[in-house]
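Hi P.,

Sorry for the delay on this. The queue was packed all week, but I finally got your sequence through. Input first:
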Amino acid sequence: MEQSEKEAIAAASEELSQEFKTLIDSQDMDSLKQLQHIILGRLQDSNAVLSHFNDYSENCYAEVSSDLYTNTRLLKSMKLDLDYIFQKLRSLKAKIKATYPDAFPDDSTIETLDRRPDLEIPQ
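Then the structure:
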């Protein structure tokens, strides 16, 4: 760009900014700046609180993570044990049912044999 074009653009920009200044009241601009500073302060306070909370959470997690890992391993082990137990029970039940077909009643006879009240029904 030539120097004259740059000067023309700068002059046009200056004139445009002067026109904008006449459209906006200086008191409104001051109040907007003040509100922006208040909002900035609140956001900085919130950011500090969140940073403190994140540090606290990180410390708490570090304290609990080993227990969580141990308990998770224990639960997985218990689940495997229970799966094994239920598998054995199913196979024993199948063997008993094959040997003694009347050992386990079907659904219709279970209802007649079971006379206990249903505690799930509201009274």
